[in-house]
Amino acid sequence: MQHKRILVTGGAGFIGSHLCEKLLEQGNEVICMDNLFTGRKDNIRHLMAHPYFEFIRHDVLESVYVECDQIYNLACPASPIHYQYDPIKTAKTSVIGALHALGLAKRCHARILQASTSEVYGDPEVHPQPETYRGCVNPHGIRSCYDEGKRMAETLFFDYHRQHGVDIKVIRIFNTYGPRMRPDDGRVVSNFIMQALRGEDITIYGDGKQTRSFCYVDDLVDGMIRMMNSRDGFTGPVNLGNPGEFTMLELAELVLKMTGSKSRLVYMPLPEDDPIQRKPVIELAKRELDWEPKVPLAEGLAATIEYFRKQL
Ligand code: NAD
Ligand code: UDP
To answer: Could you tell me if the CB of 80 is within 6 A of ligand 2?
Structure first.
């Protein structure tokens, strides 16, 4: 692959830091832009001395000009507790952040990829979810700042493409996990592992029968890079996720078994608008990107548990 200068917004976050690492490994120059709201310098500390790596502390609500060939737009808190902490800022980050990134792509003639989400499907009535499904999203609930923000960002991407010919790529990421998730981010994988390792109660929200599909971060990053470098004219949106579907109870049992923990399961109320089921159709990614996830849940969990053990 040809050497490129690549901007990654949200590059100090969980997924962003793995992406920066991989892009550097492939010989690219990487500019990582992040305001460190949920991202951490620790995630990129090992990259700081790399001659092709540059970190810019910057909030994407302010515009910026940097010369680049490609932009991965990831800046946005992703875990419900973080995106609900300041919902107005979350919506602004998605929408104004996308506008700034698209404006930059237009100016520099850069190709730009949007990290959209399975949340655009809301609490889906179609299962599993193909890209053609338009979703079932509450426009005024506690998840709306994120879901509708990401939906508007997709709209802006396609309008910049139609109106200004910007070279866009849109991926819809399904639940992704792995090392460098924050132990305190409230997401189910980090919560269950931390609770199991500390011998605390495992918090099952609702009856635990709701499902999610969990993709290991290395598989996701591979799919993101393939999408960015996919054929001209293929814009997506394309689902990237692992079609293996698990209930939260199954996940809890697996985490307990793998950690050897004696933690008990406790049941707590299901948060508002929590989707009941979620599983990607990935035929489009298979066909266009020759991509499918390779890491089974147990293998990815083992690496994640190891990471959290070290953090403790
Ligand atoms: P994360 O919270 O670890 O990463 C987001 C990064 O964006 C953080 O480093 C944060 O500091 C930064 N950021 C937030 N607001 C910003 C702002 N205003 N200006 C500059 N930087 C800002 O979350 P993640 O899991 O790594 O998610 C990365 C992207 O992938 C997000 O856009 C998210 O919506 C998307 N996504 C993630 C998942 C998942 O399961 N992890 C699923 C679907 C979509
Ligand atoms: N969940 C849970 N216990 C927890 C954290 C989350 O049962 O301690 C459930 C949550 O209600 C949801 C699923 O796990 O049904 C995934 O939650 P997460 O916040 O990880 O992601 P999202 O809901 O955004 O897919």
So the answer is: yes
Q: What is the pLDDT of residues 2-26, one digit of tens each?
A: 789 999 999 999 999 999 999 999 9
Please report where in the chains the tokens 């996940």 appear, as a residue: 251
Q: Read off the pLDDT of residues 235-265 as tens digits, 9 standing for 90 and up.
A: 999 999 999 999 999 999 999 999 999 999 9
Q: Which ligand is nearest to the CA of 149?
A: 1
Q: What is the pTM of this model?
A: 0.98
User: Which DSSP string corresponds to 77-117?
Assistant: --SHHHHTTSHHHHHHHHHHHHHHHHHHHHHHT-EEEEEEE
- CA torsion through residues 53, 218, 280, 78, sign: negative
From the CA of 19, which ligand is nearest? 1
Ranges in the chain, pLDDT < 50: none
Looking at domain 5-176+216-242+280-294, its CATH class is alpha beta
Please tell me the predicted confidence (pLDDT) of residue 75: 98
**What residue owns the CA closest to ligand 1's atom 14?**
76
Going from N- to C-terminal start, the domains of the chain cover 5-176+216-242+280-294
pLDDT for position 172? 98
Q: Which of 20, 121, 30, 38 is nearest to 85 (CA)?
A: 38
What is the SS3 assignment for 304?
Answer: helix
Catalytic residue among 72, 83, 121, 146: 146
Asked if 160 is an active-site residue, the reply is no
Identify each DSSP E strand in 5-52 by its residue range.
Answer: 5-9, 29-34
| Whether residue 36 has its Cβ less than 6 Å from ligand 1 | yes
Cα gap 212→189, rounded to integer Å: 11
